[in-house]
Amino acid sequence: xxxxxxxxxxxxxxxxxxxxxxxxxxxxxxxxxxxxxxxxxxxxxxxxxxxxxxxxxxxxxxxxxxxxxxxxxxxxxxxxxxxxxxxxxxxxxxxxxxxxxxxxxxxxxxxxxxxxxxxxxxxxxxxxxxxxx
Length: 133
Known about the structure:
alpha+beta
């Protein structure tokens, strides 16, 4: 993603989802970096509206200080990569927010790990899954 290297320095991003009527809703999300790729999770799993919207095919965008970028989410199913994403959450947010980090690294949130990628197609969740490479 353009300026993706800068995403990991942010405390959070706004993830916007477009509704059927064309309006947008944005939710703040914690974001972590593993090997130059940006990852997000839904703290409450499938109960999270942004995740349900993304899985239903809503258009997505990242709202960062340098602008708005259309994105898609790539599900992560690789266990080793998921471990690394959990460790990135602990390292970045653990010292200040140990309780929420336990939630973000627990089984429910871990099952929603998504890599943020530039949107090159319609739809919001890419087919297939991300692996360690």
